[in-house]
Amino acid sequence: MTRVHDNLEPAEAKMAANHVSVFYGDKAAIDDVSIEIPNEYVTAFIGPSGCGKSTFLRSLNRMNDTIPSARVEGEITLDGEDIYKSGMDVVQLRARVGMVFQKPNPFPKSIYENIAYGPKIHGLASGKAELDEIVEQSLRRAGLWEEVKDRLEDSGTALSGGQQQRLCIARAIAVDPEVILMDEPCSALDPIATAKIEELIDEISGRYAIVIVTHSMQQAARVSQRTAFFHLGKIVEYGRTSDIFTTPLEQRTQDYITGRYG
Amino acid sequence: MSGPILFLLALGLGLAGWIAGRARAWAFRKSVPDGRLASLPNYHAWYVALWIAVPVALFAVVWSATAPSLILQSVLSTPEASQLPAFGFQRDNILREAQAVASGAAPAVFNEAAKPLIEPFREAMARYNLMGFAAALVIAFLAGAFAYLRLKPDFAARTRVERAVMFALLLASLVAILTTLGIVASLVFETVRFFGMVNPIDFLFGTQWNPDPMSGADNPDASRYGAIPLFWGTIFIGAIIAMIVAIPLGLMSAIYLTQYADPRLRKWLKPALEILAGVPTVVYGYFAALTVAPMIRDLAQSVGIEGASSESALAAGIVMGVMIIPFVSSMADDSIAAVPSAMRDGSLAMGATRSETIKRVLIPAALPGIVAGIMLAISRAIGETMIVVMAASTAANLSANPFDSMTTVTVQIVAMLTGEASTEHHTTLSAFALGFVLFLVTLALNFIALRVVRRFREAYE
């Protein structure tokens, strides 16, 4: 059972999972997980490899739908609305719950087109000027504008790894989501690029609910306010990041954050 | 006659060398302190065997090429040969007959004049066969002894054998290349002869194709050899009508198979689609000529199109397009599947629908591969013969009406080569010129396709 720290300050829950299990075929990757994702906070999911944290993250915007054998049980809500109910528009859901992947995956298009892609398919801009505005604003928020403003027509794949990942964050921001899911966004980046991404997460954190999966305890400690420790498909412990790292309630959490396993 | 026997001899002697080499290598194992040789005994065995078999086989090739003329020479120098008539044709016949009887290929002579020559032929053959055997044995012994004596415990037989393997592989790949060169050379040779009779400018830019096999062989009427209608027919049927059918259907089936189909369904559908590529083109030809063509003619007449031919370009083009579908779809399938799934996930995570993802991300990323597939399909279509031979007509028509009858380059090549004119006649030679130009066109298309594929391969590394 999940141990929840009882000193959590009240926060508006943006998303909530109630008794969620995720199966790949017959195998349960997530087993009866319940958690609230607070709005305007950064929530970190930590845990050893294969503990199900990425699987759980992908079920928050139904990206698991693309895997034929995956099946989700239980209830996940966004603003109180069940996202797995029949008649739910997955396209709308993903526009509200954006995602940044482990490996930067810019489209093989120009930098401009990478950002304009989402606004175009969702009809967010009524003209070229407005689209330009969205592109510039998204790139500014992602801290990439100064570096690319003179070469918006260059291919997005020609950027460095760190720039590509910031481009992907800008791309996610461009559709004005409410939640941003980040699946180990820095695992393919060097320390300097990582620092820039962390800085960026910090800057945009008040605006969205952000969930970040990470293998780096230091990163979780640096960027998040809440931390959930996953182990063997369950959330072992959930609380304020500072509490999880200084006064964990569970021995397993203690062992993991001190590097005894994982 | 002695060639195959010499080859068998090469194999037999090679086997003997193999056994001897292996035995010697085994013997080394006892003499070396730790029993370890630089190469395994088998490699020593192969080394000796190759040294025997390859020179003997080469000798067999040379000998079977030169022996007949040596035999002939010796027969002609006998007193019996002085009776031969001087006239070449008769003389050759007599000699050939005598030789056939001597070698046992014919039971008896027809021409009495050949009789006295049988015995000299027998003698000469026996003599040269013996010489061939002796020479082969000497070569085998010398080469085998050389190889056998080189064997030592520390002899690197393995690397030598490895090199021999490489040469064998090189030779195998050269065969295909040399054959291609031979084809090109023969085409060029005949084409040059044709262009000696008909001006290439008239050929390439003339608009009347109406060769006359009955006309004099010396002075062809160049105005009858305008190839434009043929190339237009080829392009109209193969590259326009067929592609209008094949590109959308091939692409859409590839998209369905990679993006929408359930894996179980895909397991059935993909092989079923590939069966299309295995249908003999002759069978497509029946289908086009007997089923599709009348259907199209009736359809055209029922909607009031006058003069629809029963050998319409449309029928041949549509069936050819169906034949090409698997080419387009399997190339498109491969290149769409090669787009990293991260691209697809990235687009879906932005809230794009599946078809938006396909249209805006997957197809643009896979485009080079798709284009290459289409190029290969076009070069396949314009080189295709059987369907058009059966379904298209032989009338050269420069028309943009798909219901008209039209002919293609390949149909005319078949018609000219199977016609009644001699191989020296300009109507026959025109087939080579057509083939040569067609070859250049498909070569160019394949070349472009390969270049595009190469660029595509670099895209995600």
Count of runs of 4 or more consecutive helical residues of chain B: 15
CATH superfamily of the largest domain in chain B: MetI-like
Q: Let me know the number of strands of chain B.
A: 0
What is the number of domains of chain B? Answer: 2
Helix-residue proportion of chain B: over 70%
Number of helices of chain A: 10
Please tell me the CATH architecture of chain A by its name: 3-Layer(aba) Sandwich
The quaternary organization reads as heterodimer
Radius of gyration based on Cα positions of chain A: 18 Å
End-to-end span of chain A in angstroms? 20 Å
Highest CATH level, the class of chain A: Alpha Beta
Structural class of chain B: mainly alpha
**CATH hierarchy: architecture of the largest domain in chain B:** Orthogonal Bundle
Protein name (chain B): Phosphate transport system permease protein
Keywords (chain B): Cell inner membrane, Cell membrane, Membrane, Phosphate transport, Transmembrane, Transmembrane helix, Transport
InterPro entries (chain B): MetI-like, MetI-like_sf, Phosphate_PstC, PstC_N
Organism (chain B): Parerythrobacter lacustris
Outline the fold blueprint.
The complex is a heterodimer of chains A (262) and B (461).
Chain A: E1 3-4, E2 13-24, E3 27-38, E4 42-46, H1 53-60, E5 70-78, E6 81-82, H2 90-96, E7 97-100, H3 111-121, H4 128-141, H5 145-148, H6 161-174, E8 179-183, H7 191-204, E9 209-213, H8 217-223, E10 226-231, E11 234-240, H9 241-246, H10 251-257
Chain B: H1 2-31, H2 41-76, H3 88-102, H4 115-150, H5 157-197, H6 200-205, H7 228-260, H8 263-278, H9 281-302, H10 313-337, H11 341-349, H12 354-383, H13 386-391, H14 409-417, H15 426-458
Domain ABC transmembrane type-1 (chain B): 232-449
Membrane topology (chain B): Multi-pass membrane protein
Keywords (chain B): Cell inner membrane, Cell membrane, Membrane, Phosphate transport, Transmembrane, Transmembrane helix, Transport
